[in-house]
Amino acid sequence: MAVRWIRSVRSFIERGKRGWAITDAWDYDHYLARQISEVLEHLADSGHSYPGHEPFDTAEKWEAHLKSIAVALRKYVEADDCEQCNGFPYLPEEHACHLTCYEDAKEAMHKLADVFGNLWD
User: Fewer CB atoms near the end CB (10 Å): N or C, the chain?
Assistant: First the structure.
């Protein structure tokens, strides 16, 4: 118990100093997916602006796009809870539940890259 607490404090301090902790790198794909999905949800729910040009000429279209990316990334993180495939995206085809989440997350990251310069509020 004490070791876990010490690691938590150490990670907190490391994130405060440089924005990431050594423990974040242990499972970096999930860390990034979780962080990005949370920030995109925040932008969609409480953002004050949107690109203003096609295909995001309304706030509603922009919010829907951000949320679709966030959902795919969150599902990727939550796929670790799948009892059948035990959270590994590179298992054989019989574990299609996780492979689908993995492919959807990759597509979401491509969508994110396409609007990267528009991620401001």
Answer: N
